[in-house]
Amino acid sequence: MRVYQAELKRILKTRSVQILLAAAVLLSAVLAYFPCTFAEYVYENEAGQEVTLTGREAIRMIKERQGVYQGEITEEKLSDAVEQYDEFASRYEGGLPNGIYDERVTAVDSYRYVYAINRLLTRMQEVNADPDTGIAPGMEELTQADAQNFYKQCRQHVRDLIYLENGHGAKADSAVAQAEMLYDKVKMPFIYYPYISTDAIEYTGLCVLVLVLIGMILMVPQFSSDRQTQAEQIIKCTKYGKRRLAAVRILTGVTVVTIMYAAGITLFLLVMNSLIGWESLKSSVQITVSAVVFVPVTVGGLEVIIALAGYITLLATVCFTLFLSGQMKSVFASAVTAFVFFLLPVVCYMVFDGNVRNWICSILPSGGTGLINSFTYAVTDTKFAFIGNQAIWTPYLMMAAALIEIILFIPLTVAGWCRKRG
Fewest beta carbons within 10 Å, which of 36, 191, 219, 368? Predict the structure, then answer.
């Protein structure tokens, strides 16, 4: 315990560590503010002037104008949405073949007549996409039958999309079976409350990325600093300077990054959800992001899943970084190597394709973070990795690989520190 306390005190007294911990908290708060700034609403005031609201004022107006198109999204509400859009389109000669992007449609009319139902119409377009081409119908092509069969078509679209992406065969059948098993647990009818958007989910993943990166930087000098100064030779001559010290440094490192991550992600979620509105967290992911998202949770539940997956990814990245730190002769070398491996999933996602890309991006220690290769996107996507004809959903693969790496790199780090140097 005394060795642990001494190591923890040593880390927390380091100026660079204090700066990085403060940066983690500050950046979490800053990132939490951005999602609400993307909200926009345009209306006409009593004087006939066009007014554009942004930020929290826009969110307040959106909630007021959402009307009946919130709560449970029943087939009746979907039918009303189709009817309302048809009435709106009929006001224009020849209809609106380009939808609300027609040059004749003003911003005021778009927000007044279409904004509240746009999300519902978009989901109906999505699930009625052509199974052979993936091309969705236009809003003007949606019918009352599409509205009444929406939830039945959701399940069919899951099958169609996976077969479209993976072809027909035993591999695709395995993927479809997994997807249907998860999708059967999705609560229907879907639920929606404004104002929640994909921006909130994407920024949760971005916050995870920043916190994992800071955690990695914090752990870079844990062992390599002593090798660089040659203090390693003296430390290993002490009573607890080998195996016990290595284990304690790993433990103190994990303690620091855990506290940092917990503080950062908690602050982020509290600030962001307070600005957007807590009620919106009850919205179904399937109406907010995509109708074919497998995970049977609300937006609030998805935020928690992303946060927990981020922590597992953090531990995998930190344990790998500690292993590198114990192998490198300088802090600079360990920092560069760690950073290269941190960015590797992003690079591989851009360089490779198909099953190879899914495997490489999923099994690397930092595979759960990044940009469109991250767990945040994978958990709302339909990508699978394949071993023969067996399909593995990529979020499962990411977390399984991360847990194995945590277990693997801890003893390897201890063994590397205890090994005699030539």
Answer: 191
Residue 324, token pair as written in the block: 């590198």
Q: Give the model's pLDDT for residue 420.
A: 55
Predicted TM-score (pTM) of this structure: 0.92
Please give the pLDDT value at position 304. Answer: 95
Most confident residue range from 132-141, 216-225, 256-265: 256-265
Phi, psi (degrees; rounded to nearest 5) at 13: -85, -10
- Residue 158 CA from chain centroid, whole number: 21
